[in-house]
Amino acid sequence: MKTTLAIHGGPKTRPTAFPSRKRHGERDKQLLNEVIDSDVIFYWLGSKVFEFQRSFAKLYGRKHALACSSGTAAVHIALGALALPAGSEVITSSITDMGSLTGVLYQGLVPVFADVDPGTLNMSAESVRSRITPRTSAILVVHHAGLAADMDEMLALGREFSIPVIEDCAQAYLCGYKGRLAGTMSEIATFSLNHFKHIECGSGGIVATSDDRIRYRASLFLDKCYQREEGIRDPFFLAPNYQITELQGAVALAQLEKLEAIINSRNALGTRLSNRLAGVPGIIPQTVPSGCRHTYFLYLFRLDLKRLECSAREFSQALQAEGIPNADHLITGGRPVYLYDIFQNRSAFPGTEYPFSPDRYYRRGDCPAAEKAFEEWITMNIYENYSEADIDDIAAAVAKVAEWYSNRAAVTVPAGSAASSVEGQV
Ligand SMILES: Cc1ncc(COP(=O)(O)O)c(C=O)c1O
Predict the structure, then answer these.
(1) Is 102 in the pocket of ligand 1 (CB under 6 A)?
(2) How far is the centre of ligand 1, averaged over its atoms, from the C-alpha of 199 (Å)?
(3) How many domains does the chain have?
(4) Which residue's C-alpha comes closest to atom 5 of ligand 1?
């Protein structure tokens, strides 16, 4: 007889809360104090942001890194630095954060959405190829959830069509791809330092490039096109103020010192969980292509709904009741981004359909694999401070829920129990 699910009144697999993360400490305080003692919080006159930029560029083996106010700003800066022509099209993933799209729209560019690979949920190179037109000006690759996208193919497309590739690495710090790091393979890469990321400073972003010309334009784009390096104030293109402060720079610097340990731990824990789940009927761990090092910004697995008699929502709720926080809506809130109102109603700017093309609409069915993903995938956070025992509890709970739903017919439920009433609704 199977163990009754907690959602049906059975024992919880994980009765205690998972350990909370302690993200900031003495080192952050020390560096913050240095900023306050210096009496300079403006990045241009301070030292912490510049020190962070040098350390980040060194870690990534890139010539330049520039810090800015958010990951959204970083993507906008990258697009601005590449001087993509307004009205041209940028191909990106149908499963990403709105922060990948904001700068696209502000630059007067038209977003085009590629479908995802059903095993990894990263944007598929085949789908990107099918979206390329003479109007395509760039490919914005999103390394989703901490797993690198198929960069060999993306870069080959960039070369074939002579268009730049940008990497959005907001979720993909130190993420490995065939011996290289995500964020080192394209013309320019972007990162986020928001609260939810592997490292954070409240809000912040980074762009990284080895191209001097791109760096120069990026440095202007984040700062009103003031040519501070030359001491000239004569803006020659439209640029926002996306400055980061010394306070954020200090915290980011302290965080960077911990990044490798965070990534090593997440990778080990995520790999352990996938190994535990590998043999569980009805559960398909996310595919990690050979040569990729997953950094588990999120842990994802897919439900084999041919083997389970439940929806992803029911599975998610049952797992939650077992004491395992999780979600069934991926990072977008339950639908591919092109189904957001802003794309459906073409309502980026009031009173106009700008910058959307008159001949490009966003319709249900555009990206079938992405749309299906929302029926099948469960996501959860596994944090670097979790123990192996924590991971084993997660695995046990997933196995318990999967076993229940794959074997419900064989389960004897006492008449009139809470289990039988919930059972009837499934
Ligand atoms: C893939 C991706 N791109 C861009 C962003 C935007 O970053 P931020 O929230 O720092 O603006 C995020 C944030 O979640 C993201 O996940």
Answers:
(1) no
(2) 13
(3) 1
(4) 99
In a domain, 44, yes or no: yes
CATH number of the domain that 140 lies in? 3.40.640.10
The answer to whether residue 303 sits within a structural domain is no
What is the rounded distance in angstroms from the CA atom of residue 50 to the CA atom of residue 380? Answer: 35
Q: Are 165 and 142 a contacting pair, CB within 8 Å?
A: no
Distance from Cα 141 to the centre of ligand 1, integer Å? 13
368 inside domain:
no
Whether 249 is in a domain gets the answer yes
Q: Which atom of ligand 1 is nearest to the CA of 143?
A: 1
Q: How far is the CA of 71 from the centre of ligand 1 (A)?
A: 5
Name the DSSP class of 283. E
List the one residue out of 171, 401, 215 whose CA is nearest residue 307.
401
**291: pLDDT confidence band, cut at 50, 70 and 90?**
very high
Separation CA 361–CA 271 (nearest Å): 40
Cα 419 to middle of ligand 1, angstroms: 41
Range of the domain at 207: 26-259
Pocket flag, ligand 1, residue 92 (CB < 6 Å): no
Ligand 1 within 6 A of CB of 189:
no
Q: For residue 34, which of 244, 257, 246 has the smallest C-alpha distance? A: 246
pLDDT digit string (tens) for 232-283?
999 999 999 999 999 999 999 999 999 999 999 999 999 999 999 999 999 9
Residue corresponding to tokens 């499963």: 95
